[in-house]
Amino acid sequence: MRCALTLAYNGTHFLGSQVQSESPNTVFGEFEKVLHKLGIDFRVVASGRTDKGVHATGQVCHVELPPFWSDLEKFKRVLNEMLPHAIQVKNIKAVEDTFHARYSAKKRVYRYIIKNADSNPFENDFATFLQHVEFEKIQADIKLFEGEHDFKYFMKTGSDVNSTTRVIYKAFAYKYKGFIVLNFEANGFLRSQIRLMVGALLKLDAAQIQEQLSCQKKHRIKPAPSNGLYLAKIKY
């Protein structure tokens, strides 16, 4: 039986989500370790990868369950008892055999969290703290990313992709309980694309962002820190 699982995880101490042969300390490395203990020898298929330090509130993956795990609520409960506390299964449901966590996805939603304040040890892992943030500027400039663009100047060097064109359906910023939240919804994202877009919003003016977005000029920007980034939702 093929099942889709929705996961939340604190990515602070993981070396990303993707299974790595050189290190077991990844989200799905830990997840597969638990599956093997439960008699499930199946490579987990995720909607996409998140990098070191990046969090998720709505990551989706699919697995093939053997017949003896037909009770999905029990399976969810056992998984959450055995998984590290930094990983939680939020939901599990049976899906068609044609469902694919990655290729069936139509839209992906990410959020980036900023706090315009002094850092503190209780929130440092979960938001990027900045002393000076021009919220109105960010709120206006973030709209430049909406639409179909070639994001080759907004991806990590060395990325291996067939196309660097992506469609961003929504990009907006708002304030929530003392935090500044940047929301991006697209058909897909390149590696480090969101962190580089946030970096551009924090450093460049509107004209410079437009130059880089139209591939006229590449400005020197650093990707925003990983701790403020969340994979929020996958839409199918």
Task: Give a written overview of the molecule.
This protein is α+β, with helices and mostly antiparallel strands. The protein has two domains: 2-94, Alpha-Beta Plaits (2-Layer Sandwich); 107-235, 2-Layer Sandwich (Alpha-Beta Plaits). It contains five helices and ten strands; from the N terminus they run βαββαβββαβββααβ. The protein has helices at residues 27-37, 72-82, 135-141, 193-203, 206-213, and strands at 2-9, 45-46, 55-64, 87-94, 107-115, 128-129, 147-150, 165-176, 179-186, 229-235. Strands 1, 2, 3, 4, 5, 6, 7, 8, 9 and 10 form a ten-stranded mixed beta sheet that branches. A hairpin with a 2-residue loop joins β8 (165-176) and β9 (179-186).
The biggest sheet, with number of strands, parallel, antiparallel or mixed sense and barrel status, is: 10 strands, mixed
Question: What is the H level of CATH, i.e. the homologous superfamily of the largest domain?
Answer: Pseudouridine synthase I, catalytic domain, C-terminal subdomain
- Quaternary structure: single chain
Average pLDDT score: 94
- Using the CA coordinates, give the radius of gyration: 19 Å
Q: What is this structure's SSE topology?
A:
Elements (H helix, E strand, L loop, with lengths): L1 E8 L17 H11 L7 E2 L8 E10 L7 H11 L4 E8 L12 E9 L12 E2 L5 H7 L5 E4 L14 E12 L2 E8 L6 H11 L2 H8 L15 E7 L1
Parallel strand pairs: 3-10, 5-6
Antiparallel strand pairs: 1-3, 1-4, 2-3, 5-9, 5-10, 7-8, 8-9
